[in-house]
Design brief:
Chain lengths: 264, 276
């Protein structure tokens, strides 16, 4: 993959309901980076990724996705967005496979039959998150962690160059966190860009190459996560949930001490 | 099938069949988008369209399509703007539609309470051959939209943000759902009447939701239930000599109650199977 800029925001301001939520953000994310956007609830970290994707308009400043403003960006197949949770909507059932297959929509032409490439990508996405055996089950019957894995599989199915994930580890059981970390590590090794918003790193910490801390709508830290023991005060200064960043607290997750049953 | 010996019943049956097939197909998307009452809203607005037809001497179906499509677009624009004031704005539109319709029917030559009643509660036995052709054309258009845009509409109804970041034309697709619903309302108007139109878009879907596991199966099953309700309701109304629109809706509701019970039972036995 050639060296490219996935996201480039300059002087980004976002106002929601008359309240400034982002106040002058400059951030550039290169292809292949694995970036954690950290911050407390209400810090503006989710707003930041929504603005980067063009889901929220900027009140000032500019932002580019692969060099184009979101409104003129056309290569959406390169983007895999993983929202915080599965939406229930009006409760019409949908199977795991239906949801995951819908992640291919940016790559398919209208009325086209499911090609073998589609089938391979969908099956690979399902098995990457360990949900192949549940393909025919309605998503509503899955646990929160399993639903999160389905959402990630939906993004994987589109074979994007860039993953943007909103709190992928929030409320997710240890088994699912472990599966998620493995999946993301494999994608990172392929040179994919990963941007994830979180208030606790959990099992994914080991693959993060850069961390951005957002506080009160501005970036207060942007740099290496591995320097943390010396620089821990920076995070403490950002009022981060200490337990979320506490290395010792993560040990159990990788070892899978949590319930490993398929659980529902 | 003695009832098919009558020409008017043949036409009525075709119309009923088409409505039973199309309304739940669109309804599946509408229910998933939490717009179950959209059909009701459009139904109210459509009354003004019907009245305009009587007033100007145009075919009411045609004016109803035009006015309800405009109404649906207005409703969608209000919805997309935000929710807080949307509620009230929608209510204003609904009452405006009903009041405008009543007023205009009163003004039109030959307009009477009977005209009003047939628009509100259906008049399937008065379906003309022209009506059948128009209904068939509209039904083909509606089903065409569902087949052609189905994949995109599914993702839109699952998660609007993901649809947007997949590059889908979210605003266009949202308008498309609203307009398709408007056309469906007009198709169904003759069969069950404007006040009960929404029942055929929502109740068969709610029924099949109890029994199915996938989105596609929900839609197909709902279309099946829709046809059973419209065709079954119309035939029983013919023999029993009661109002067809009401019979169709009550039959769908009975189906829903039955499915609710069966669904509970099936889910419980499935849960028992999966526990070791």
């Amino acid at each position: 993959m050639k060296s490219e800029t996935a996201f480039a925001m300059t002087g980004g301001h976002v106002v929601l309901d008359g309240r400034p939520v982002l106040r002058g953000v400059d951030v550039t994310i290169a292809q292949g980076e694995v970036v954690a956007i950290l911050g407390t609830n209400g810090s503006g970290k989710s707003t930041l990724i929504r603005a980067l994707l063009g889901l929220l308009p900027l009140s000032a400043g500019s932002t580019l996705i692969y060099g184009a403003p979101p409104s003129r960006f056309r290569e959406w197949w390169r983007v895999g967005y993983v929202p915080q949770r599965l939406q229930v909507g009006g409760g019409v059932p949908a199977t795991v496979k239906e949801v995951v297959s819908s992640g291919r929509v940016a790559r398919r032409r209208r009325l086209s039959r499911t090609s073998s490439a589609d089938r391979v990508a969908i099956d690979a996405a399902l098995s990457a998150v360990g949900m192949s055996h549940r393909a025919g089950d309605p998503v509503s019957t899955l646990s929160g962690g399993q639903q999160q894995r389905v959402l990630i599989a939906r993004a994987l199915a589109g074979e994007p160059d860039l993953f943007v994930m909103d709190e992928p580890t929030a409320g997710v059981d240890a088994e699912s966190q472990h599966a998620l970390a493995g999946t993301l590590a494999a994608q990172a090794a392929l040179g994919k860009t990963i941007v994830l918003v979180t208030h606790e790193l959990g099992a994914v910490e080991s693959i993060i190459t850069r961390s951005i801390v957002v506080k009160n709508g501005v970036i207060v830290h942007d740099g290496d996560l591995s320097v943390r023991p010396g620089g821990r005060h920076e995070y403490a200064g950002a009022d981060l949930d200490r337990s979320g960043l506490d290395h010792a607290g993560l040990g159990g997750i990788g070892l899978g001490t949590g319930p490993l049953g398929t659980g529902t | 099938m003695e009832l098919l010996n009558y020409d008017f019943m043949q036409r009525a049956m075709i119309a009923a069949l088409l409505v039973g097939l199309t309304a739940p197909a669109v309804g599946t998307f509408i229910v998933q988008r939490r717009l179950a009452l959209l059909g009701d809203g459009i139904g109210h607005v459509a009354l003004t369209g019907v009245a305009l037809g009587f007033l100007t001497g145009t075919t009411p179906v045609v004016t109803a399509v035009i006015v309800s499509v405009l109404g649906a677009v207005a409703i969608e624009l209000v919805r997309a703007r935000g929710r807080t004031s949307g509620d009230v704005a929608l209510a204003l539109l609904f009452y405006g539609g009903i009041a405008g319709g009543v007023m205009l029917i009163g003004l039109s030559p030959g307009g009477s309470n009977a005209t009003l009643m047939s628009a509100l509660f259906g008049s399937i036995s008065s379906v003309t051959e022209e009506d059948v052709w128009i209904t068939a054309a509209l039904a083909v258009a509606v089903l065409g939209v569902v087949v052609y845009f189905g994949r995109e509409l599914f993702l839109l109804c699952q998660d609007e943000d993901v649809a947007r970041t997949s590059g889908l034309p979210v605003r266009f697709l949202s308008l498309l759902i609203a307009v398709t619903a408007a056309v469906t309302v007009v198709i169904a108007m003759r069969v069950v009447g404007l006040l009960m139109v929404s029942a055929l878009m929502v109740v068969p879907v709610a029924t099949s939701q109890q029994l199915s596991r996938s989105f596609l199966a929900t839609m197909l099953l709902a279309m099946g239930f829709g046809v059973v309700a419209t065709v079954g309701g119309l035939s029983s109304a013919f023999y029993a000599g009661v109002a067809p629109g009401a019979t169709i809706v009550l039959l769908s509701l009975a189906g829903f109650v039955l499915a609710l019970g069966i669904g509970r039972f099936v889910r419980r036995s499935r849960a028992q199977e999966s526990t070791p």
